[in-house]
Structure formats: structure tokens, C-alpha cells
Structure prediction request, 644 residues.
Amino acid sequence: QDQSVPSIEGLTLHSTDVQSKFPACYPSLNPVDIYREHIAETIGKISDIDPKLVYTKLAWTNSLDKGDLTLPVPALQVKGRKPNELAAELVEKFPASDLIEKPAAHGVHIQFFFKPEPLLKTIINRILENKATYGTNGNLGLHDPSDASKGKKKVIIEFSSPNIAKPFHAGHLRSTIIGGFLANLFTITGWEVIKMNYLGDWGKQYGLLATGFKRYGSEEALLKDPINHLFDVYVKVNQDMSAQDVPIKELRETIKAKKEKNEDVSADEAQLKKLVDESDDEKARRYFKSMEDGDADALALWRRFRDLSIQKYKQTYARLNIDFDVYSGESQVLPESLKHAYESMEKTGTSENSEGAVIVDFTKHGAKKLGKAIVIRKDGTPLYLTRDIGAIVERHNKYHFDKMIYVVASQQDLHLAQLFKVTELTGHKDIASKCQHINFGMVRGMSTRKGTVKFLDDILRDVGDKMHEVMKKNEAKYEQVEDPHATADTLGITAVMVQDMSGKRVNGYDFNLETMTSFEGDTGPYLQYAHARLSSIIRKAEINPEDLPNADLSPLTESHAIDLARYLAQWPDVVLNTYKTLEPTTVLTYLFRMTHMLSSSYDILRIVGREEKTAKARMALYAAARQVLHNGMKLLGLNPVERM
Ligand code: ARG
Prediction:
């Protein structure tokens, strides 16, 4: 299987693109731009409307029966003209064209349909030639699209960010899927992308974990399966801690009661002090304190936990085609960054003292909704928010990013809004304005069949098992699959990811093993099936793929063939639109429409038994469709399968 991430290597601007008089017009990358140019120029000739204006207002349509491009005439804002009359006049005057049919006016909209013959030729040849780069546009991420030597813009995408020794929950799963997709999207639009994992790897809980490890830890288990082992240890020591809490609380009550009766409590207080002192909670606090103070032994154990966990995470992420450039984390925020954060908050009057702690009262800074937040505890230690405040400036100094995206669940909307606001208030407005929170809703009911989910591996294993069962139901097909386990694994991952990316990010969804693994409906397995089917047609046809780019396409006269090509022509625009929405569903919606069209075409556009010319033309069309489906799936982070 092809594990590569979409790449735009070798894609360069054609000189004609740079000279285009229209903004962001790249006919060599996006064939639809040829049509936009043509329509805009023609309207410029038959009216006194500025072609540039026409160019920017030409819109894509929601369904093929509404045309390939549409011009909403009111958007041109021509003074003194009724839009419907102007539309009728433009249509009337529009001269015969080699590229498009005679346009039609529908009320205030003008619909343009591409002529089949030149479209088929341009699109199919372009796709077969550009292959994985069809749809990419490396100019979007350039500092200056007319001068590539000025370099690419840089984006940091922070995503996944699980907490060591704690469960990898649904929020982390969604962050991983959406973040991986965004990283691909920015890569194929020409940005330099830094994928960052900001681990929850610091705090008192690591003191507790170390305490627990001394009691329950096993070297062997740690090396074999660090994530599960550390979690087990953490759960056990947490139980111990809760158990120890019971007598402590009781004793406190007793002391209180005795004090009210003026009885002597000195023995009880001595006992209480002893209990607290020996408690795991206190041990954890002391241990973490020694970590904060830089104690080498304490840090060495913690570092082993961290390193081993990262090793294991890497293997799991690889199954999702994700590899991080940086494993940062709460522990990695430099002391001087925290110091800078404290000082700049104080200097700018952002923070204030409150009962021994330091807080930011956002209501005093014109941000009522953000409430108040503690930034330094009474004991002088920083919080989750404080580390982020330090990290944001540190990252800017280190990477000089043009943009930074935090892919974090909506539950942390307030946290990120507070972070960006503090950044702004402390004199880093420029940095704040480059940052964006990409949020998402909750997944409901994510549990495996064996109980609640703890880790990503459990989810993937479970969905893979289920997929294997589904595959076995079709015995004949199952027999032919070379490595059913590996295929089930890939299909399972696809199922989870497609379900996750189907709706808009802000919406939550129900985790449903049955629906997501079905071959019916708009599911991951359906997409994979479409890809495998195309791959199989191409394999079986015994036509040399090298011959296809120059195939004679004149036999493609059926409406199914033409409509399919019209869909394929939309792909670069779909990528552009996705770049605006940053929603994976923009890609998925398109891929499902296109593959539905495909499904209804197979019977009509058969290859087997057809004369060579027809077979070859249809093959070229299918090969182009497979390529676009492949490109779309790769953008989403899926691994298209050849057989299943
Ligand atoms: N580790 C955090 C959690 O699990 C998510 C981190 C999000 N990123 C950030 N910069 N705060 O809730």
C-alpha cells in the first residue's frame, strides 16, 4: 500500500498562469479556470462589465443540472439595470463558443454548461498526466504566488495531544483525524506544515504515577505495552489514594467534633499529620516538586515513561498515516517562557493578585464572557492555561509561523479564547491574530464491545474485528482477499475516519459500529469498495495504462460518461472550497456524489467485450475517476485499497 502523503513536488507555475489578468487564476492547475477566463472575457466584450468582476463572481453549482458554472447577475451590481433583464440580454448576446454551450438565463442566474468533447479531452488527459497532483494548488501557501523563491508560508498544526497514562478519549480521536486531514490540506496547497503533538505530560499526576510504579510497576510490562501498563498502574495508585482518603476525612471530622466540645485533639492531629504525610497524594506532590526542581532521578523515570509512550503512540499514529514533526508537551514549555508570561501579564496590567494567587479578570478587559482564570496558584505553580500562554510566544519565536491551528474539542472553547485574549492583552496581538482554534463536537457512546474504550488501539482493533465479520459474510469475495486481516484493519480504520468526517465538525455524532462498517450508505467501506472496483476494472482490462493519456475519447458520448467527467472537473475547485471551509465533509460530500455517479455508470459503460476503441476510452475515464478518488481519499488521510 502506498503510505505517502499527498505531495506537490514538481508542480510549478506555468508562465501563462502568472500572466493571467485574473486573480488566483491557474489554468494549468485547475482546468475550470480556462472556462472562467473564457466566460469573463466574453462577457467583457459584449458588455461594459469588468471581466475581473465577472471572473470572481462565477460560482460553482450544487448539482449538475444547474450547469457547471453559474453567474448570479445581482452580484455584479450593475447600476440602473434589472438583474433578470441584464441576464437575458447577456445570454442573448453571448456568441457561439468552442468551449461552452449557449448559456441559459434562469431568473437572475446565468447557467453555463461545458461542451462535452473538449471537456472530456482536457479533463481526462489532465488527470492522467498530473496524477496525484491533480487538484493540488501549491500557490496558495506561497508568500508571493508570482515569485516562488520568496518561499512557503509556515503553519503549525497542533493536534491529537493525548495525556500520558490517561485514556485516549474520543476528543483525542477526533483531534487526530481532523488534524491529520488539515495537515494534508495545507501540504497540498503549498504550505510548509509542522505537525505538533502537545502531550499532557506534566503535573502532579506524574508524581502519582511514579509513586504507583514503585508499588505496582513491572519493567517487563512497561517495555511490552507502556501505554496500557502505565494506565493500569495509574488506576491502581489512584484507588490507593482514594482509600487513604477515607480515614483522613474521618479523622478530620473527629477533630472538628472534638474541638467543638473543647476536647483535646493533639494526639489526633499528630495522627492526621502522619496519615497525610504518608499518603500517596502527598508523595505525589513531593515527587512532582522534585521534578519541577530538576531532580535527575525523578526526571529520569518520568522521561522513560514519556519516551516509551511516544514510541508506542508513533506506531498507532502510523496506522492512521500520521507522523508528527514535533512531540512537544506541557513539560517542554521552557521556564523562561513562563517567566516571560508572568512578567508580561503583570507589566501590561493583564493579571492581578487575588488572595495569594494571580488571576486574569477578563471582565475588566472588555471580555465579559471569558470570566476569570487563575494563572498562578497560591503555591506559586503555573496551570494548564499558563503553560499555553508561555508556549504560544515560545513557538512564535522558535518557528516564526504564519499561522497556527489548535485542533481541540469544543469543550475547550473557553480555554482557547482565554489563551488568545491573554496573548493579545500582553502585547502579542500579531501572534494572536495568526492563531485559530479548530473545534469539534463530542462523540457519543464510544465504547468497544468489551467495555469502555481506553486507547486508540482498542478502538481500531475492535472496528477491524467487526469489519472482518462483515467481510466474511460474502464468502466468495472473502476467499479472494489475499490478506483479510490487513484488509479488515484498513477498512476498519477507514470506517472510523469516514464516520468522523461525515458531518460538520461542530456537530457531535453517535459512535455506531454497525452503521460505519456497512457497505451500504455513505460509509468508509463504500468508498473503499468504489476504489477497489475501479482498480479491478483497470487490472482486468489488459490495456496498457501508458496508452491511456492519448486515447481517442470520441466514443464517450453517453450522458453518464459526460457527467462523470463534469464531476472530475470539479475536484480542484472542491479542494479550493475545502481550503476555505476547513471541513473534511466538503471533500467527503463530493466523493460520495462522484462515486454514486460511478456506481450507476458501470452497467452502461462496460468494457468487457467492447471494441477496442470504446474500451480504451472508457478505461481512460475510469482511470481518471480512480485517480480523483485516490487523491480525495489521500487528502482525508485514508489508505485506498486495490482489492477487497
Ligand atoms: N492534552 C489536552 C487534553 O487532553 C489537550 C491539549 C490541547 N492543546 C493545547 N495547546 N492546550 O485535554
In short: Residues 15-60+69-113 form a domain with the Gyrase A; domain 2 fold (CATH 3.30.1360.70). The first strand starts at residue 59 and ends at 60.
